[in-house]
Amino acid sequence: MRTDLNVFADFRPKIPHTFRSTPFVLLGNIDPTLQMEVLDQITRPKLVLADTMNLWIDIRRPELIELCRRIDVLVLNDEEARQLTDCKNLVLAARELHALGPKTVIIKKGEHGALLLQGNDVFSLPALPLSDVVDPTGAGDTFAGALMGFIARSGDTSSANLRRAVVYGSVLASFCVQGVSTNRIAAATPEDVLARYNEFQRLTSF
Amino acid sequence: MRTDLNVFADFRPKIPHTFRSTPFVLLGNIDPTLQMEVLDQITRPKLVLADTMNLWIDIRRPELIELCRRIDVLVLNDEEARQLTDCKNLVLAARELHALGPKTVIIKKGEHGALLLQGNDVFSLPALPLSDVVDPTGAGDTFAGALMGFIARSGDTSSANLRRAVVYGSVLASFCVQGVSTNRIAAATPEDVLARYNEFQRLTSF
């Protein structure tokens, strides 16, 4: 119903020198002006992903559009994709988003999964059907973080690897919603993650 | 907003003798009392699928539950699954539906795809993202008809083939929504159908 910025209201991120040459940059969901300030401090990144939300579309639209020209991957949810582009149809919305700059657009659909659009190459992954959803808070951040973590660890920004990254993002998001805060994620072992990745394979194969 | 039964109000289906030994029965979405009358006229079917809707859950719940004991596959949409079982969570709803009788439950989610549940074996297929959705009328009937047509033609009721049947159902439903009435489906060639089946493969593989 309302976003309280709290500590973010006066936040001016200073990136430590040792972090400035990182090749993989995830611009978390803050004011696009600050996201650009972060980006200004990074030296020649290989892949930049930005997350955003309805608040910035409402009150920082020009800045968000400026940011879009400087990023490779835009992550947002279905309603935000519609709001930013004025397109009800998600395929047309993604086309508009591509035109703003990002070669890759990822549209999160919550319990309905996620869409990865790289021009005409479209990947659609359903969410894992869960009987025990406890709290969806943080699922979007978890998704983006795990997705970018997988890309950074593998160093592979190919279209096929981005598909796998979306699956890993969804795996971690599925753990996120099964607990409060980071409790369930923190309890997940690498084996749990791999098992759930394989569960996504069984869920979607035909 | 309202269902007018029209010619269905006084319809009492009489199955022609030559049809009574059909191994594959699709009970279209009519009064469950009539669906049972149809079933009474069939000799030892191999697979029986029934489609239903909110109206019958509202006014023919006991008859619908009686029907469920006599069918192999129940097809309904997500809202109807929730309404029939009083479970908001679709995994729990499917568990309740299994307990009513059908070994296989297919939950249609419109633009979000479909779920095929065979006990603990779950298949989730997203819908094909389309930029030109014209009219969704008939998409559910098309889905069920194509699904059953594929099973009947192949004669294979294995779990793996049911997954493929859901894909073929979704392929035909995707043509359905791209036109008014049966226009777009009627124009689709077998090659178009196969091409779109392969499109679903590309859409979902990782």
Structure description:
The structure is a homodimer of 206-residue chains. Chain A is α/β, with parallel strands linked by helices and 206 residues long. Chain A has helices spanning 32-40, 54-59, 61-68, 78-85, 90-100, 139-154, 159-176, 183-187, 190-204, and strands at residues 24-27, 47-51, 73-77, 104-108, 114-118, 121-125. The first copy, chain A, has a 6-stranded mixed β-sheet with strand order 1-2-3-4-5-6, with helices on both faces. In chain A, helix 4 (78-85) packs across helix 5 and helix 7 packs across helix 9 (190-204). Chain A is globular. The first copy, chain A, starts with 23 loop residues before the first strand and ends with a helix. The A-B interface holds A 89-92, 95, 109, 112-113, 115, 122-127, 129-131, 133, 160, 163-164, 166-167, 200-206 and B 89-92, 95, 109, 112-113, 115, 121-127, 129-131, 133, 160, 163-164, 166-167, 200-201, 203-206.
Summarize the structure.
The first copy, chain A, is α/β, with parallel strands linked by helices and 206 residues long. Chain A has 9 helices and 6 strands, in the order βαβααβααβββαααα. A 6-stranded mixed beta sheet of chain A has the order 1-2-3-4-5-6, with helices on both faces.
List the helices and strands and how they pair.
2 copies of one chain form a homodimer.
Chain A (H helix, E strand, L loop, with lengths): L23 E4 L4 H9 L6 E5 L2 H6 L1 H8 L4 E5 H8 L4 H11 L3 E5 L5 E5 L2 E5 L13 H16 L4 H18 L6 H5 L2 H15 L2
Parallel strand pairs in A: 1-2, 2-3, 3-4
Antiparallel strand pairs in A: 4-5, 5-6
Helix pairs in contact in A: 4-5, 6-7, 7-9
